[in-house]
UniProtKB/TrEMBL annotation:
<feature type="compositionally biased region" description="Basic and acidic residues">
    <location>
        <begin position="135"/>
        <end position="159"/>
    </location>
</feature>
<keyword id="KW-0813">Transport</keyword>
<dbReference type="Pfam" id="PF01297">
    <property type="entry name" value="ZnuA"/>
</dbReference>
<feature type="signal peptide">
    <location>
        <begin position="1"/>
        <end position="24"/>
    </location>
</feature>
<keyword id="KW-0479">Metal-binding</keyword>
<dbReference type="InterPro" id="IPR050492">
    <property type="entry name" value="Bact_metal-bind_prot9"/>
</dbReference>
<keyword id="KW-0732">Signal</keyword>
<dbReference type="InterPro" id="IPR006127">
    <property type="entry name" value="ZnuA-like"/>
</dbReference>
<feature type="region of interest" description="Disordered">
    <location>
        <begin position="133"/>
        <end position="159"/>
    </location>
</feature>
<protein>
    <submittedName>
        <fullName>Zinc ABC transporter substrate-binding protein</fullName>
    </submittedName>
</protein>
Length: 337
């Protein structure tokens, strides 16, 4: 889809100037003049976490739909619907996390017959192990198709190896995905290509500021340790230089929806009574179980602050940068206590 006539150079220059003046509090997409008949590129994202990134890049010239757009829905065991397939079938661009996290999206693309380009965040992330994780994901999908089974996991199961697929918590990956989106959108709508690139650059600036903020948190708390119930926020914790003291077997079991061995639970609980204890417990607000409730209770009884972070956008939040900024504020507040 191209626009005619092309936007004048003055408008493009104006958009760039506006982007440079965008504040750090949000993704800062540039508003551009539109009318009721302005065409919009149809983007379908697997979750609203990525939908927020797509919206920041596409701005006024994109219509973004997220298959999962509620904090009450667990992406791990999501069962797609025929309506989801119809939505994906109408997409001009598809955005998914990949790495086995949202395997339902691969099913939807196949079921809909869509030929829209697909941006796979894990695949383009450049993180060590991402290529292997993406290859394993594709191999799993092909095997499932060959056997006539659905490619997604059963509820409570999650196809991932040691690779942490929660890459929307990694500012560098979000920057890379934004650039990929801008490139794809520019091919679909050449007349708005500069607009998309400007928005992607603005989002990249917000991501860079998040990294700087995370670094400052780490500098303010050298040697600080934290515990997590799941590896969801690990990339953000890494950006802050914080040590994750969680037993790997514990977080893996919780993520898989299984019960950790009693000895591992005891090891986890001991983090709150150690001298000194961990500085904070970061809990996945969308996953609760008797085990996570026990861990939360133990942390609170020991006076260890509890920080909740989610896998999809919290209620009332639509902006990725603001979301991650709020997470960092919560983390800093907990460590300051």
């Amino acid at each position: 889809m191209s626009r005619s006539p092309l936007r004048p150079a003055a408008l493009v220059a104006g958009l760039a100037a506006l982007a440079l003046g965008a504040t750090a509090c949000g993704s800062g997409q540039v508003d551009a003049p539109t009318s009721a008949d302005t065409p919009q590129v149809k983007i379908v994202a697997s979750t609203d976490a990525w939908g927020a990134v797509a919206r920041a890049v596409g701005g006024n010239y994109a219509q973004v739909t997220s298959v999962i757009d509620s904090p009450d829905v667990d992406p791990h065991g999501y069962e797609p619907t025929p309506q989801n397939a119809a939505t994906v079938g109408g997409a001009q661009l598809v955005l998914m996390n990949g790495g086995g996290y949202d395997a339902f999206m691969t099913d939807l693309v196949a079921a809909s017959g869509s030929r829209a380009p697909v941006v796979d965040a894990v695949e383009v992330s450049g993180i060590e192990g991402a290529t292997e994780a993406a290859a394993d994901d594709h191999a799993h999908d092909h095997a499932a198709e060959a056997s006539g089974e659905a490619g997604h996991e059963h509820e409570g199961e999650h196809a991932h190896g040691s690779f942490n697929e929660h890459v929307w918590y990694d500012p560098d990956t979000v920057t890379t995905v934004a650039q990929q989106l801008a490139d794809q959108l520019g091919r679909i709508d050449p007349g708005a290509a500069e607009y998309f690139r400007t928005n992607a650059a603005t989002l990249a600036g917000g991501a860079a500021q998040l990294k700087s903020k995370a670094t400052e948190i780490g500098r303010a708390h050298p040697g600080a340790t934290v515990a997590v119930t799941e590896p969801v926020p690990d990339y953000l914790l890494d950006a802050a230089g914080l040590k994750n003291a969680t037993p790997q077997e514990f977080s893996a079991a919780v993520e898989e929806g299984t019960d950790p061995p009693a000895a591992v639970v005891a090891q986890m609980l001991g983090l709150f009574t150690a001298n000194p204890p961990v500085g904070a417990l970061v809990l996945n607000s969308q996953t609760t179980s008797p085990t996570t409730d026990q861990v939360r209770s133990a942390a609170q009884q020991a006076g260890v602050p509890v920080v909740e972070m989610s896998e999809t956008l919290p209620q009332g939040t639509t902006d990725w940068v603001q979301w991650m900024n709020a997470n960092l504020d919560e983390l800093a507040g907990a460590l300051n206590r």
